Amino acid sequence: MKGIDRIYFDDNDLSERAYSVYINSDLTFYREEKSGVYYAGLNHKEDPVEIGNLQDVEKYLISFDENEMED
To answer: Is 31 in contact with 4 (CB distance < 8 Å)?
Structure first.
């Protein structure tokens, strides 16, 4: 996709729970330069889908948390 760049999160960008999911996954994130909208793919080969803002990224990652099912 034109106009989006692959990004890497660090532990200052996300909550501890979301970051733990992120670093233990193959998820790949991108950010559209002009709008700031985030996109994600299940790996670097998959076409990314729109996620939204950083808060949406947080929710998206937590949805993959195995402990989410227990809460």
So the answer is: yes
Can you give the pTM of this predicted structure?
Answer: 0.84
Residue-wise pLDDT tens digits, 37-70: 999 998 878 889 999 999 999 999 999 987 654 5
| φ/ψ of residue 17, rounded to 5 | -65, -50
Query: What is the pLDDT confidence band of residue 17, given thresholds at 50, 70 and 90?
Result: very high
List own/partner pairs for 10-19 with CB under 8 A and 24 or more apart: 13/54, 14/57, 14/58, 14/61, 15/58, 15/62, 17/61, 17/62, 17/65, 17/67, 18/57, 18/58, 18/61, 18/62, 18/65, 19/61
Q: What does DSSP say about strands 28-32 and 38-41: parallel, antiparallel, or unpaired?
A: antiparallel
